[in-house]
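Entry type: protein chain
Record version: 2
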Amino acid sequence: MTVPTEDAAAGLGAELPDRHGHDGQPPGDPLTGEHRRFLAAHTRGFLITTRADGGPIGYPMTVRWCDGTLEFNTYRRSAKVAHLRRDGRVCVVVVPRDRAADRRVLSVWGRVQPGEGSIENWMRDGEDPTPGPSTPPRVATPHVLTPHVLTPHVVTPHVVTPPHVVSRVRERLLDGRRIIIRVTPLTALFTHGPEGVGDAG
């Protein structure tokens, strides 16, 4: 597969590029150091794949950047595993939990690797293996930016997964009911998330 070759690094203050896929190629550009740093820092993601009828479907996931691949865990018999076995092309959208600090969103296009990943990276003490979304940010009392414009101030709470949930996920990884899926990134693209009251998560 041939992918675009232009550099797509985008820092916090950089102008975001406009990259579109053509002729069946995924959008974006090959991963840069900035992409990799973003993926290593953020674990809140959305897996986008296709159903049997070809329609898109998305799942909120905890994702991890491990040895150059994106990993997530899910039930072996889940619908998403059936979708991925049929078509391994995916897009993973990674979003910072603290949207006030970083409003960038990174879309990563790639392919699911054959076989199952190692559970080792998901069994370490102090790390959260849970697969789902975090508590959404709460919207605090609006503060005034100008004399005539009110904008909500979004506060992202500290997210703590209950220990019994972490323990249950790890048990199901150990007994094989849950598996690790690995995605090899091909291209990536930064965009800015929307602003306003509707941006609650």
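Comment: Helices lie at 33-41, 79-86, 163-174.
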